[in-house]
Amino acid sequence: MSNRISPTTTRRKFIQTATQITTATSLVTLAPNPLFGTVFKSNDFLQDEHPPVNRGRIFKSVKWGMINQGDSILEKFQLSKELGYDGMELISPSNLNVEEVLAASRQTGLPVHGLVNQKHWGIRLSSPDASQRDQGQKILEQCLLDAKAFGGDSVLLVPGRVAGPQETHDDVWQRSIIEIRKTIPLACRLGVRILIENVWNGFCETPEQLKNYLDEINSPWVGAYFDIGNVQKFSPPETWIPVLGNRIIKLDVKDWGKENGFCKIGDGDVNWDAVRQALSDIQFSGWCTAEVGGGKKERLADIASRMDHCLAL
Question: How many domains does the chain have?
Fold first, then answer.
């Protein structure tokens, strides 16, 4: 059987009721790891000061490339289920077998909620080369088809990069909007959203800029994939959330600090109390996905525990 996903691949639809997140008592007790900072232990959250107010409202996921244990697709899904994750985010393009992914998803009850465009940095919608922009737009279309095939409802996209006089902020703005608009009819037909991630690419580094960019596109099929840790470098994420409001469809979860850069979730400068309140104020409900250094079972358990703690899951 071919691993290649084609536009004719049939999506095996399923509706999975979100199961209750595994309690912190299921997590293994870990020793401190100087590479990642202090590790939360299994009993740290038994008397957690944060009631799980977002359990059943915000669902946690892990990115496929972070899972460094398990020889098969099913084993990776099973491990994620065991550790309390609610779903999975895949990548495109990839050589993952659609039927195997869907079978693993059904068997474990973990849906694939979306995927990440793996080519958006190198083949950019903002490129000064028209052929590169055209190629990037075709890749985005294939990502939408792939997401549909796996059962997902979103594609994470970085729309470009400010990269000198031929790729200015205005260039990224204008060129990427043209290419995204070409793709919106397919997104609508498939029921898969294009979600713009805020990254360190020199583009839309204030919440007002990102809001205005999305509003200029002006489509229900294009929203924000808000990365909590990425914006900490520019301004606190809790100041972005009310500006973007319901444009935020999904969350990437990481932490960052002036002293320790990207670090374990909860060890940086992000004010998680304020983030939780801001998300509550806009009545956010949806997927959050860890985007940090992955590993094997112990590392992935620690990530799940930290997400539960910081987001009150």
Answer: 1
